[in-house]
Design a protein that fits this description.
Helices cover 75% and strands 0% of the residues. It is built from eleven helices and no strands.
Length: 256
């Protein structure tokens, strides 16, 4: 919690390779915690105001609370990665752009559009309880995508990317993705039967696929992963999963 959120954890000490390698495997659990908190906000606002604007407000507040609890880490990485990859510069120049503290037009555009789509996708799920579940599972899926992406090397020495890149084993990554798939399938079967379970797995696959495509682009353009790229995986995987849910699940009760 002290590494990935602003929630007080009451710990101290240096962040070294061993600590970072252990912490990265807890990312899905952190996602579940944040998703539960954001889902609670969504449920509370949606219960008080069941109208369309009320659902939209609940979705916006839920996304905002999660952003606050993560210290804007993912949003900062999203903007920096958009600026770097969108610059179409060689790897060294793109990495230098990503190091800067300012945000360029590509970064601003990415932030605005991603937040708008995330809020709209959550609000578009008709049934409130399933919208809460979709939000929580999207948070977990995004962080599982980060764990999977640690198979790539670091693009440069130093920084968060170098701490976690290549620190997980193939078995650990496969187990993380497998547990997520089993959890989604079980939740879908319980909530709506086989059809909902299949679509839930398809939505999860869409999120992981978005992360894999970004990983591939980063390795091709930058030569590996940076901290900014890693935290952007969360946003891109999450938005893909939420968008899939919003487009395809209304006929099965409105959720995933």
């Amino acid at each position: 919690m002290s590494l990935f959120t602003t929630i007080p954890a009451g710990v101290s000490g240096m962040l070294d390779d061993e600590v970072a390698a252990k912490a990265i495997l807890w990312l899905p659990g952190i996602g579940l915690l944040l998703g539960a908190i954001g889902g609670g906000v969504l449920l509370a606002v949606g219960t008080l105001n069941t109208t369309g604007p009320g659902r939209l407000l609940g979705a916006a507040l839920a996304v905002a609370v999660i952003a606050v609890l993560t210290g804007g880490l993912h949003l900062d990485g999203l903007a920096d990665t958009a600026d770097g990859l969108g610059s179409r510069r060689p790897a060294d120049a793109a990495l230098e752009i990503m190091r800067r503290s300012d945000i360029g037009p590509m970064g601003v555009g990415a932030l605005v559009l991603v937040l708008l789509i995330q809020v709209a996708a959550v609000a578009a799920v008709p049934r409130l309880p399933l919208a809460v579940a979709a939000l929580a599972l999207a948070e977990v899926t995004g962080r599982v995508s980060v764990v999977v992406a640690t198979s790539s090397p670091a693009a440069r020495p130093g920084g968060f990317g170098a701490l976690v890149a290549g620190r997980t084993t193939g078995a650990e990554r496969a187990l993380t993705a497998g547990v997520l798939a089993c959890a989604v399938a079980a939740a879908g079967l319980t909530a709506g039967g086989p059809a909902l379970a299949v679509l839930g797995l398809a939505a999860t696959l869409a999120g992981l696929l978005a992360g894999w495509l970004l990983q591939r682009a980063a390795r091709r353009r930058l030569g590996g992963m940076t901290g900014d790229v890693f935290v952007r995986f969360h946003e891109m995987s999450e938005i893909s999963r939420r968008g899939f849910c919003a487009r395809n699940f209304a006929d099965l009760g409105g959720g995933c």
